[in-house]
Design a protein that fits this description.
about 325 residues, 7 helices, 3 domains, four-stranded antiparallel β-sheet, alpha+beta, Pseudouridine synthase, Structural Genomics Hypothetical 15.5 Kd Protein In mrcA-pckA Intergenic Region, Chain A
Length: about 325
């Protein structure tokens, strides 16, 4: 396959080929590494090579369908939407999206492989088939999954280009103002590499708009609208503004012993095993049908129970 790069700006070689060949970026990177790509008739082994206007690119596609090494595993899936191109899952707390260092089995991907065993889903990736974004283990709510390679590429680009509108809900410690914007840049914490922070040497821009839905004496039910997708963005932004999310084991420690908080609430929080952060909805244009689509997930039972407790034991006095 021969292609001419005609844009007036530069771009990465793997990004250009992924779009033109309608293949995943990881597959294209593998082809480049294996010596299947030339730029201006010269072999190129760098995926990050920047193409310039009028560059000529050649690629020899030698794709093999490699079965996933993951074992399909039966599991419960709360499906919010599904068609031939994609599906949306209402993820439960505690569910890990894909295998990683701490979890090799019984992830959402294992359950999806079992559910979609008759489709091309298992050929998309050996580790993360269909996954175009992720939610933390303790976060609940809407998760999109691509069922075909083309859809996976399109959805990944939509998340990258921020054309998918994300809405979250959370319950935070502290009484927040009615609305606002948090825009501190985020990167790996200088002291703890497992955490994200604004105290970092390599910060990336992060913007979160928020609006209070219900304010109590010591807590806030808040809607969150991230304009960027940094790791732990919502949790870090809220914590660093002194409003950590209830139940957050990493960014909200030490907030359950306040003497002014009713005992009924502190006891309930002490039993909570996950963060009260919920991916409430995704709004976007369907990548194949081009129709507007909004997918929402109802608040989890424990989230709703805690809201009821707040209304009973921590009502707003003004």
């Amino acid at each position: 396959m021969k292609l001419n790069y005609s844009s007036t700006t530069t771009t990465r070689l793997d990004s250009f080929l992924s779009e033109k060949a309608e293949k995943s970026r990881s597959f294209i990177q593998e082809q480049i590494k294996n010596g299947k790509v030339s730029v201006n008739e010269t072999l190129c082994l760098k995926s990050s090579h920047r193409l310039k206007p009028q560059d000529s690119v050649s690629i020899e596609l030698t794709e093999e369908i490699i079965p996933s090494y993951l074992t399909p595993t039966p599991g419960s899936l709360d499906i919010l939407f599904e068609d031939e191109f994609l599906l949306a899952i209402n993820k439960s707390a505690g569910v890990i999206v894909h295998p990683g260092a701490g979890q090799k089995e019984n992830t959402l991907v294992h359950h999806l492989l079992h559910y979609l065993k008759t489709s091309e889903f298992s050929t998309l990736s050996q580790e993360r088939p269909g996954i175009v974004h992720r939610l933390d283990q303790g976060t609940t709510g809407v998760l999109l999954v691509a069922k075909t390679e083309k859809t996976q590429i399109l959805l990944s680009e939509m998340f990258k280009n921020r054309s998918i509108k994300k809405s979250y809900q959370a319950i935070t410690w502290g009484r927040m103002n009615l609305s606002g914007t948090m825009n501190s840049a985020i990167g790996r914490d200088r002291r703890d590499r497992k955490k994200m922070s604004s105290r970092t040497q390599k910060a990336r821009p992060a913007i979160t708009q928020w609006r209070s839905l219900d304010r109590f004496r010591h807590f806030t039910h808040v809607a969150l609208f991230p304009h960027t997708g940094r790791t732990h963005q919502l949790r870090v932004h809220l914590s660093e503004n002194h409003f950590p999310i209830v139940g957050d084991p990493t960014y909200g420690r030490g907030r359950t012993k306040g003497s002014l908080i009713p005992q009924e609430l502190t006891h309930w929080i002490s039993l909570l095993d996950h963060t009260l952060l919920h991916a409430y909805s995704l709004e976007f244009t369907h990548p194949k049908t081009e129709k507007p689509l909004t997918i929402s997930a109802p608040l989890p039972v424990d989230f709703s129970i805690f809201l009821k407790l707040l209304k009973d034991y921590d009502p707003c006095l003004d």
